[in-house]
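Journal club prep — side note

Before the paper discussion, L.F. wants everyone to see what a predicted structure for a comparable chain looks like in token form. Sequence:
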Amino acid sequence: AAPVVGCLTCVTLALETYGVNGSITAEGSDVFDALTDVVGVFVSSVCGWMQAARDPEAEPELLTAFFEMCHRCLVFRPAILLGLEGTPQLFDAAISCICHQEFQHTRAAITFLCLFMSGTDAAGPYREGAAHCMHQRGATLLQQCLTGLATTSPDNLVDHQARCPARRPPARAPPPRPARRGRCTRCQRRPRRSRLRRLRCSRAPSRP
């Protein structure tokens, strides 16, 4: 795994170096196309390996370098990552790491997921793919976070896991029901009063 980790680190440095200059990495440029090809190959290969491997957690350095590369790609050039066909597989791969025990790569995966869900200004035009992943796999993400918080995860990962589902927009509370008109407050509190008593209540002078 060491050669792959070195390659992932080089790609991360390339994203940080060239991503600062928007003219060099503009869509359609040679640098943009080259980075897109390299990132796409790594996403496809590593996600396929994670799905087929018996114990991906046994390679923490590889997973850490991979998710750090994905995170830096979202920071500097989100169009590269969010435009890939393998973006849903990448989202699933990150979710599968949430309940891992090793700190570094689990934190890297959770940090990537948080930025993936919250987004950046530059990711605005490409949020449809991310929203689709959240719609399809959001329940699995929440379940994994709760499982990690409740049972499997070490204490130093609790704060990171608690922040992950909080990145999703909160559900809106239903609007309050409008109060009924034509009835006084005392009658609404006791709806079982007789009709005569309600009539007396409505005729009673209101207190200042």
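L.F.'s comment for the group: Residues 127-152 form the longest helix (26 residues). Keep this in mind when we get to the figures.
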